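Hi F.,

I've been meaning to write this up properly since the lab meeting, where we talked about keeping a consistent format for the predictions we share between groups. The idea is simple: the sequence comes first, exactly as it goes in, then the structure tokens exactly as they come out, then a line or two of notes. No screenshots and no reformatting. I'm using this chain as the first example so we have something concrete to point to.
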Amino acid sequence: MITLRELAGRPADWQLRKPSLRRPRFGAHWVGPSAIAGSVAWSWLAFAGAQGEDGPVAFGLFIGAVSIILMAWSFVLAIRIRFLEPLFGGLDAMYRVHRWIGALAVVTMFLHIQIEPELDGTGILGASKSVADAATDLAGLAETFLYVLVGVSILRWIPYRFWRLTHKLLILPYLAACWHFYTAEKSYANGSGWGWWFGSIMVVGTIAYLFRVVVRDAIAPGLPHTVTRATLHGSTLELVLKPDGKPMKYKPGQFAVIKFQVSGLREPHIFTIASAPADGYLSFFIRSLGDWTDRVHRTDLVGRPVIVEGPYGRFQPNQRAVWIAGGVGISAFVSTIRLLGDGSRAADGPPVTLFYSVRSEDDAMAIEVLREAQAAGHLDLVLCCSDQGQRFSETVMADHFGSTTLAGAHVAACGPAGLVAAAERAAGVLGVHHIEREDFDIRQGFGPDLSRPIDQLLSRFARSRIRVPQIRSNR
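Output, unedited:
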């Protein structure tokens, strides 16, 4: 059974992770957030000057519309459209925007309902009064349902695979809100320009959801592959996938969404591609960090089908590069390191400097590839093994470069949050105020992650009726 101590977790489990504030960089990645902000700001003009029985009601009507606009945008971002990546700064940034505008949509819906804006009778109903009243009642029920879904989302007691199913139900309060908005009394007619504007937004949001669930998840989920090799390196599993047909075209440093076609492992997860584009196969490093990765490690996957969606990411280092990796985070750089000697970099250019933080050298992934690149003079490898008292820090990086400035260098970090934060501080001291990073924390919230104990509890009940997956022996 799950104990009270497990339910309580640690104090850190109940702290909300706030978005980090970094020095702004101007570029194409501002286009996406600006488009969202612009669509919201433009919509204010539809309600400016609206009056109710007790005074202005423009703000109350406006934030109701904002809630629908933000929900529609969140559905669009959930599709994982590749051409949107540069407009938001990468797929991980798209997920963060998706999460925060979703949270803001809930807040604006709550405020709209608390204000209860009503026009003074000069507004235009979108439907008959009876239909509008029924839509209002339905929206009230949908509001309660939305709060339940939000509670499931922010409470990490609920395992990811169950949360993912409930997350798909968010379309129901969205549709109810759209129906209420369409039928309610407004300062414009549904057939007017503003009616077409908001109607188009509602339709786009609905189509985006259907495309995500029907097309992306069911009809065209990705390219079929088969697992041909599974090698265990300590707590990290290396999987090699062979394409069943047309191979995926990708660039070094990109990542993909993999979906095993195995009962209990079907939920999608994002991993960096560790193989090189010319290899003819895909390889991934998967570390045991939760209930899903635990089951991946325990299951004999050789010969099993897997769907791969992608590729995503725009990893484009320049001639001078400094990379910081922690544990399985080395996957983000292995593919590029394999190609360091292929002429893509200037022969007289400086070698790539790689700080690789691991528990021990035995835990280092692709160490042969790293040593080979180091011997060829393409890689300046700094291995930080914690079992030898060597941990990556600002001091380690500063001592390595001495008085040399890194201004203009490509600095990238991939690994645990603490290591990435240390890399940002160290780079700042050496003249680099922005580093490239990936942060795929798909689900944030409060409380301890109870995925493992709940998975174990469910396994006990199901063991007598469901075939237990084969356990791969350590070989």
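Notes:
The domain at 223-314 is CATH 2.40.30.10 (Elongation Factor Tu (Ef-tu); domain 3).
The first helix runs from residue 4 to 8.

If this format works for you, I'll send the rest the same way.

G.
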